[in-house]
Write a structure and sequence with these properties.
Strand order of the largest sheet: 5-6-4-8-7
Order of helices and strands: HEEHEEHEEEEEHHHHHEEH
Number of strands: 11
Strand content: 15-25%
Helix content: 25-40%
Number of helices: 9
Number of domains: 2
Radius of gyration: 22 Å
């Protein structure tokens, strides 16, 4: 049962958020996120419980009504957002990415350990993008802000998300040490990471146009370029850090293998069996007339051949 908010509790919350707001103001005045503050694309946000899950929902600081990521009329400048936060009615401020601004946000979820250590897969991305990075409100993940545009729509694969418009990011100014304090121009690095997460079918060098059950062409191993795909290499090693479940990690590895082999099902199966994710009792488990691995491959083929949906 939710605890009743007494007048004393509300007063304590207001004092807490007044102090938190002042901390934000000081950090912003020191120069953090100075690239964002000229844009009138700020909102406030608060936790809401939906379907028994805690969600962060954006609100319009001027009206206290829900904000929409595709409606600039529901956004405001940073000063108004901070003033609304100080009332204690909200949990933080956020920034809405729009097509009119030059920014992209990369969200790495569930990558910070209890001891504060960063998971290797996330550290590799942080180092590659080399731009302003801060802890998320939960301190379990990080947000990376860059000046870049995405080659396509926003994407979420496992614990990695990338967006450049129609999305909002919470802002904490809880800067990750040893990362730049400025939002850097990183177009090439952002585009390369995006292609690794969501490789366009049209860019495949070994595209097999036969049916889903076909074994593919004459490719017998991964092309050399696959060595430059950090997420693929992580999964091949059996490292599932950052993935909410082993099954999702399996699915992403299969997607990656299908991409790099040009939908060569036989080779995809072989490479998965040789990878660190192979577990005989699970991988070869019978599921109806097929196995868990073959079912995963078929489902991945269906996903790859469907047109991507706009987020």
């Amino acid at each position: 049962m939710q605890q009743e908010r007494t007048p004393q509790n509300r007063l304590q919350e207001q004092r807490h958020y007044a102090g938190y707001t002042q901390d934000l103001r000081e950090r912003l005045h020191s120069g953090l996120l100075s690239e964002l503050t000229p844009y009138p694309q700020f909102v406030v946000w608060k936790y809401t419980v939906e379907n028994k899950k805690l969600k962060k929902r954006p609100f319009n600081p001027k009206t206290n009504l829900p904000a929409k990521t595709n409606d600039p009329a529901t956004w405001t400048d940073v000063t108004v957002a901070l003033k609304a936060l100080a009332t204690g009615r909200y949990n933080g401020i956020g920034f809405v990415f729009a097509e009119s601004d030059p920014f992209t946000g990369t969200d790495l979820d569930a990558c910070v350990g209890k001891d504060g250590s960063i998971a290797p897969w996330a550290q590799e991305i942080i180092t590659t993008l080399s731009s302003y990075t801060e802890y998320s409100p939960s301190k379990l993940g990080v947000h990376i802000l860059t000046q870049a545009t995405l080659p396509g729509a926003g994407r979420k694969i496992g614990s990695i998300e990338m967006y450049s418009h129609d999305w909002f990011f919470t802002l904490t100014t809880d800067h990750l040490k040893e990362t730049p304090t400025t939002i850097a121009h990183r177009q090439e690095a952002v585009a390369a990471l995006y292609r690794q997460l969501a490789p366009p079918v049209a860019e495949q060098k070994y595209q097999n146009t036969s049916g889903g059950g076909a074994s593919g062409g004459g490719l017998t191993e991964l092309p050399p370029e696959a060595a430059n795909d950090p997420l693929l290499q992580q999964l091949l090693r059996g490292d599932t850090a950052g993935f909410p479940s082993p099954s999702i990690a399996d699915f992403v590895l299969v997607l990656k293998l299908l991409h790099w082999t040009g939908d060569n099902v036989a080779l995809t199966r072989q490479l998965f069996v040789e990878s660190g994710l192979y577990r005989e009792e699970k991988t070869e488990r019978k599921t109806g007339a097929t196995t868990y691995l073959d079912m995963t491959i078929n489902n991945a083929l269906k996903k790859r051949r469907n047109r991507p949906q706009r987020r």
